[in-house]
Amino acid sequence: MNQHKSLFDTPQSAPRFLLRALFATDVDGQPAVDVDAPRASRTIAALGRAEALARKQGLIVLQLGAQEAAEARELVSVHAAIALQGVRDGRPAAPTVILSGGPVLVDGTRVGPAQYLLTLALALDGHFAIHAYASGGEPDSVRSAGYAVFLAPDTLLRAQKLRINPSERLLAQDASLLFQALDDCVTAQPSGSDGDVLRALLLAQE
After folding, report:
1. Domain boundaries defined on the chain
2. What CATH superfamily classification does 5-203 receive?
3. What's the pLDDT at 37?
4. pLDDT per residue as tens digits for the range 91-129
5. DSSP string spanning the chain?
6. What predicted TM-score, i.e. pTM, was given to this entire model?
């Protein structure tokens, strides 16, 4: 049995803890990246550090890197296709993480990480083997400190139990309210701020 299989035999908090640790903003009390560096440089540095940490944990890493600004639906179309192919066909020998970062748009306007992640949730439709994480700040600075959101296989089901309609929240561009209601939204100072969203998809073994 692969030594990393136990990550997914534990409660839901295990993948969440791992994903958040990949994008920790400090190491032993010191900033993980140069906060005065240009936005793109910070995003690249954060993704590089996340990759190194993931490999130390024995994860397979697919690094998509810092990407140009793109519509959430276009990004999700690509990311979901890669993830679904990985769990359907590849059956990875160890858990796999897909890393990327960059601005997310809706109708040409930058949005925060929750909008990306809820779009992804609907595309994955509760696939049992895929968890995801996104962090960043809201362009309107309502959450100037930044925040992170988590996606689990049961996210849509839990929203349904709370009578929250994910499609409506997505259309209204207040996806963060859904994640807050599910207790899947936490304050975080993102390494790739100023409009960039750091993203990670975690593929479990079957």
Report:
1. 5-203
2. MOFRL domain (3.40.1480.10)
3. 57
4. 666 789 999 999 999 999 999 999 999 999 999 999 999
5. --TTGGGGSS-THHHHHHHHHHT-SEETTEESS-TTS-HHHHHHHHHHHHHHHHHHTT-EEEEEEE---EEHHHHHHHHHHHHHHIIIII--SS-EEEEEEEEEEETTEEE-HHHHHHHHHHHHTS-TTEEEEEEE--TTSTTTT-EEEEE-TTHHHHHHHTT--HHHHHHTT-HHHHHHHTT-EEE---SS-TTEEEEEEEEPP-
6. 0.84
